């Protein structure tokens, strides 16, 4: 993204910095709005809207206890009767939503604050194409890339990956939780 935003690109296409910033902010707002609409459709059990928002070949990645796969069972209709009772009482109400380009992060917890969750949604062309789910896991999001885009061939240059977001609810469970890094 850094190369995309350099002055050469902006001058070549004739956009001003302010216009480009507005386009990026509008895209961020649209992506966050799409994820908010998905949570609302899930809450209200609006299957038609859920199908419009999610890609039919949604890529799913899950980290947590298998018994916490509430979202997958809710969207696919799979699971046992006891699973359905538990998942019908589990609500995905985000505590916070933030985005970094095409990645939208939502964080929340159950009513008792014992189960924390994070969803990392990937939005492409106005639909969600991927979700990474983390339950009772501390997540740190980092930007991946070099600070110098022109390293010499013979030299090894370390990557600089600044942290841009950290989960806040994982400590509420009152126990140690695994920590993961998501590089975007």
Automatic annotation (TrEMBL):
Listed Gene3D superfamilies: 3.10.450.50
Pfam families on file: WI12 (PF07107)
Protein name as annotated: Wound-induced protein 1
Gene source species: Tripterygium wilfordii (Thunder God vine)
